[in-house]
Amino acid sequence: WSAMARIVREVDEQKVQDYKEDIDTILVFAGLFSAVMTAFLIESYQALIQDPSDVMIALMQQMVMQTQSYTFNSGFLNSTTPLNLQRPPFTPTINAVRVNVLWFASLVLSLISASFGILVKQWLREYLAGEYTSPQARLRVRHFRNPGLSDWKVFEIAGILPLLLQLSLALFLVGLCFFTAEVHNSVGHTTLPLVAGWAFLLIAASVAPVLSPRCPYKTTLLKSIMR
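Structure (tokenized):
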């Protein structure tokens, strides 16, 4: 019983350790990516609100026009240009809305993947946790807990996390294409082919294992689907 319990324990620990290492990588990347994403959002969200300085400049221009229109009429100084304090409602550009929607969605997906990554690590740690008085007790607990990992799709959830992070990155890159195209056409024309090349290689690497069983480009989620 002791040898069997030890072997089963080593197999479980190795499998759980592999997933934990993947999740640690996801957490590090999600943290760095979210920090970069926040820096871009600080710049881009300002396009969704009206700049107070623009309002002040418009009012000052109108005051200058009114001052220049002063004329003497019957001994009185009158202005022929009325002061209009009502400004048309501010409407952000379609491109600004598009970029911010993509980038905020990207940030949310990145944080969601990090949140579930922390949860999965806790679930896996709980799977291995416990104090046992005998090898038989350890095997009984393992026999009780192990089906729960499959029934509740714990490893499948862990396999989806990299997909969420890739989707988050894709949304950011698409938004970056729109953003750079608005900044300058040359920058946009440089960014778009690079992003398109990345998307093509990513899709090709994801589909290749389905076309060729010997292809080593397999992911955890893909292996679960191909079984």
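The mean pLDDT is 83. Helices lie at 2-44, 52-68, 94-128, 135-151, 154-183, 185-211, 220-226.
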